[in-house]
Amino acid sequence: MVNLGTLVQYLALQGGPQQQQQQILSGDQFNMSLITETTYTLPSLPYAYDALEPHISSQIMTLHHDKHHQAYVDGLNAALKGLVAAVKANDLPAQIALQPRIRFHGGGHINHALFWANLAPAGSEETNADKVAGGLVSAIEGVWGSMEGFRKEFGAALVGIQGSGWGWLVKDGQTLKIVTTKDQDPIVGGEVPIFGVDMWEHAYYLQYLNVKAKYVENIWNVINWKTAEERFLGERDDVFEALRAALKF
Amino acid sequence: MASTLLRTSPVIRGALRASGAIKPAVGIASTTFVRGKATLPDLKYDYGALEPHISGKIMELHHKKHHQTYVTGLNTALETIAEAESKGDFTKAASVAPLLNFHGGGHLNHSLFWENLAPASREGGGEPSGVLKTAINEDFGSFDTFRKQMNTALAGIQGSGWAWLVKDKQSGTLGLVTRANQDPVTGQYVPLLGIDAWEHAYYLQYENRKAEYFEAIWNVINWKTVGSRFEKA
């Protein structure tokens, strides 16, 4: 059964450090022969389409969730169907040829699922970092000096992305890092994704047009620090376990 | 099949087309460089002139804001390099390479793009003629096959990027290439026709339905420009 946990491990095999790849292979966590067809479905948003107004418009949220995320889900299902057939046919070239599509659509599915869950309506308790994310806030202050210093650096990383991509706060061992990824590359190495911001133009263009710095400034109003704290306190597997539960396999 | 045709006799066709003449690189008429400074070229048509295929609002933002940002970014990158060079700080100069590629590519790509578009009521749309038409038929099988392959290439771009009809300087044949983000077409390929597949090129009008944009854009392709680029290449 290909579930989200094994998908994450599968994607890590392609891009993760050698040592981790070996662990995954030897740890019997991922077994190609266990692959059977499964169908991913679009997770519901944990809030209404207009709940992030005025920072992210209802129109953007509707298109982003119903159309864009759905297209990644469909693309992933089609690619995995092809993969299962290629595995059963022992067709190695076909399996390899499918990797970019699995990475792109699988990454798109994972990234958006994590993204929806790390956003919340402005003014809700979840967006109050000091109240709901004490551990993470002190860790951020430890690395960047202050929340303001962190927001500045994260914002600069987001605005500096060339083309489509994402910015993430990740936990790497005992430290925090800001990383940017291109297109739909997912965070599936050893790092724990804490929260991500979608910098594809479809995430903001209808509302902010070319002024992406304004979108970046406003996104801070709708970051779900409660989710961020939970991911920070957990391990990598916990994050994807929570995600798997949210996707109701 | 077009792919078969493409491989029949590229060397012979290339030799025929080159016919011994060494031509200068294709120039971009309206891209002006004053003392190394890039400037935003004017459009040869009004912002609304490509409607209903590309909206006036998209054209205005795309030209005035997006292209301008690449021009500004390119000039900043060039200044940083010149300054670093004057101080002998080549590490610093080299570190600017990604910005130079991104903004320089963005400036080149958009300059070529505006010129290979034209209003449907004027030169835009239709089909190529002359030697370009012959070359497309030879290398792709037919104009229709070429168009379909270009649209498939555009639809397959993962993220932001461009698709180009190019001439391969080595073989002399036509081909299709895609480029990520603002990577320019350089090296063995001469860019003839570029289509911008960044979301900002279509999203205000077509939203997620990018296939509709890729269909509509054929109504505003300036084949005269593409043909003249091909003849000079």
UniProtKB/TrEMBL annotation, chain A:
* Gene Ontology MF annotations: manganese ion binding; superoxide dismutase activity
**Which intervals hold domain Manganese/iron superoxide dismutase C-terminal?**
134-231
Has UniProt tagged this entry with the keyword Ribonucleoprotein?
no
Q: What does this protein do?
A: Destroys superoxide anion radicals which are normally produced within the cells and which are toxic to biological systems. Destroys radicals which are normally produced within the cells and which are toxic to biological systems.
Where it mainly occurs, coarsely classed, is: mitochondrion
Which residues participate in Mn(2+) binding? H64, H112, D198, H202
Keywords carried by this UniProt record: Manganese, Metal-binding, Mitochondrion, Oxidoreductase, Transit peptide
- Identify the species of origin: Echria macrotheca
Every Manganese/iron superoxide dismutase N-terminal domain range:
39-120
Which cofactors must be present for this protein to function? Mn(2+)
Localization: Mitochondrion matrix
Cite the record's note on assembly: Homotetramer.
Q: Name one GO cellular component term.
A: mitochondrial matrix
Give the SUPFAM superfamilies listed for this entry.
Answer: Fe,Mn superoxide dismutase (SOD), C-terminal domain (SSF54719), Fe,Mn superoxide dismutase (SOD), N-terminal domain (SSF46609)
Q: Tell me any Pfam family this protein matches.
A: Sod_Fe_C
The Enzyme Commission number assigned here is: 1.15.1.1
Q: Which domain of life is it from?
A: Eukaryota
What is the protein's given name? Answer: Superoxide dismutase
InterPro entries membership:
Fe/Mn_Superoxide_Dismutase, Mn/Fe_SOD, Mn/Fe_SOD_BS, Mn/Fe_SOD_C, Mn/Fe_SOD_N, Mn/Fe_SOD_N_sf, SOD_C_sf
Name the protein family.
Answer: Belongs to the iron/manganese superoxide dismutase family.
Reaction(s) the record says it catalyses: 2 superoxide + 2 H(+) = H2O2 + O2
UniProtKB/TrEMBL annotation, chain B:
Keywords per UniProt: Antioxidant, Manganese, Metal-binding, Oxidoreductase
Entry superkingdom = Eukaryota
Per the database record, which ranges form the Manganese/iron superoxide dismutase N-terminal domain? 39-118
Enzyme Commission code: 1.15.1.1
- Stretches assigned to coiled coil: none
Q: Give start and end of each Manganese/iron superoxide dismutase C-terminal domain.
A: 128-228
Q: Which cofactor does it need?
A: Mn(2+)
Its GO CC terms?
mitochondrion
Q: Which PROSITE patterns match?
A: SOD_MN
Against Pfam families, the record matches this protein to: Sod_Fe_C, Sod_Fe_N
Q: Which reaction does it catalyse?
A: 2 superoxide + 2 H(+) = H2O2 + O2
Enzyme class label: oxidoreductase
User: Which residues of this UniProt protein bind Mn(2+)?
Assistant: H62, H110, D196, H200
Q: Which GO terms describe its molecular function?
A: manganese ion binding; superoxide dismutase activity
User: What family does the database annotate?
Assistant: Belongs to the iron/manganese superoxide dismutase family.
What role does it play? Destroys radicals which are normally produced within the cells and which are toxic to biological systems.
| PANTHER family hit by this protein | SUPEROXIDE DISMUTASE 2, SUPEROXIDE DISMUTASE [MN], MITOCHONDRIAL
Put simply, this protein is called Superoxide dismutase
* Originating organism: Echria macrotheca
